[in-house]
User: Fold this.
Amino acid sequence: MNRCNPRAAAARNNFARVALAFACMVAAAPLAAADWKPANQIEIVIPNSPGGGNDAVGRLLQKLLQDRKLIPTPAIVSNKPAGGGSATLAFLGQKPNDPHYLAVVSITQQLNYITGTQTQSYRDFTPLATMIGDFIGFAVRADSPITSGKDLLERLKKDPSSLSAGITALGGNNHIAYVLAARSGGVDTKKLKTPVFQSSGDSMTALLGGHIDMHIGSVGPLAKQLEAGKVRILAITSDQRLTGPLAAIPTWKEQGIAGTFNTWRGFWAPKGLTPEQTAYWNDVFEKLSRDPQWKENLAQNLWENDYRNSRDTLKYLDALHVELRDVLKDLGLAKKLD
Assistant:
């Protein structure tokens, strides 16, 4: 027996020490995320002027961070609307490794990079979460002869330039949603007639005034026009039907068209956050996604609760980047092909 063998005893002792050290490392690992917490004021940067969707999201985040005591420090909101979001990203880019700054972002930032209107992509930051799914509706006047999404695509297939559809930017989310649906319906998307307006409100005014045939925009504002009896919504880009005033509106998917499209909203932080800092914000945003007031606000805006943590957000953005790049390339609008 080796019980009294000095060498065997030493080997057992050495193994025990190694095992104990490993066990301590494993036990400490989950505590690492709890070891970091904000030491300074949190600044939530919004790429738009006060008012509007992104501003509402940022201010609700600020309120809930403090009301629910999700962070130990104060939180403030700052609006940096210049350059269609470029000013916000430039500001965030000046704060490397600092986890005390959060930016409200959306699919617009992805599109702007590919079209070359901004120089930084999601890879230049730390994507922390996608939180919201916002969908797009295709609306005509209530007295329009176009009665469904399939009817729309049949007309466009015969003559792509026969109908005018108001959008807010070439290569923007509304434009992409239109192209995806039209392409799925066999329409020559390069011939689509898409007058560009300064805002969705201007496009809707043009529709109601009879100056364009269709308005493409976020479903929240469209629901109000639908309830007023002023428009007919032909299709929406969600995967499943929405609730509330849009419960009767079919999706593109229901109509046999591959037109599902999510105008996501979420949050990025500066580049260079540590795993512990990222884990801290993952925990905060996961709690936020389950908060009753957060859910209530999303329902009021006809938004989907679409939470992904930092790891899944990065995977999602990688896959979506390829899809958006290829669509914009086909349209001749892609400047960045990486």
